Amino acid sequence: MVRAFRVVVRGLTAAVLTFGLAGPAGARAAPADSCSLLSAAEIQAAVGKPVGAGKPNARANPLVGLPCEYRVGDLGGFSVLVKAAAAGETAASVKAALAKQQIAVAPSAALGDGSFFSSPGYGMVQLNTFKGTSYAIITLMMPGASEAAQKAAAERLMRLVVQKL
Looking at domain 2-163, which of 3.30.70, 3.10.450, 1.10.287, 3.40.1000 is its CATH number? Predict the structure, then answer.
């Protein structure tokens, strides 16, 4: 299950990082340190399961941001990525790209128009949020947890991330 999570997160991160490379190289601000945005204790409070320390995914493209990955319980995973949005990269353009990949999207009423959920499969929930020039993505997979519970945890954690952007 953790392997499936990593494969899907890598694939989705690669797609996001590809979109991020579309803008002019000089137009990007330095990406935030994703591991500094949330503590394991904050994530544990939101998901209700033990959470290990976050580690940057060193295999990601550092030009657009390194996702920070956490282990949740025995089989789950959590990832947060913050990057500078590329020119033309908006909630609407990302939704359209996901639709082309046949990945379902749904609004996140709690966070406003710049936020939406995507469902990449394997029981995973992804919350995408645009704030100013920043694009934040939370990916959560907790085997045995309902989609509603995962979405609520993702929204709670994204509120904390957005405060720091």
Answer: 3.40.1000
Helical (H) or strand (E) element with 130: strand 124-131
Question: Which three-class secondary structure state does DSSP give residue 79?
Answer: strand
Report the C-alpha gap between 119 and 106 in whole angstroms.
Answer: 9
Give phi and psi for 108, each to the nearest 5. -110, 90
> What is the residue extent of each domain of the chain?
2-163
Q: Which tens digits make up the pLDDT trace of 45-78? A: 999 999 999 999 988 887 767 899 999 999 999 9
Higher-confidence residue of 106 and 21: namely: 106
Distance, CA of 165 to CA of 8 (rounded, Å) = 26
Class of residue 157 by CB neighbours under 10 A (exposed 0-12, middle 13-18, buried 19+): buried
Max intra-chain CA distance, the chain? 44
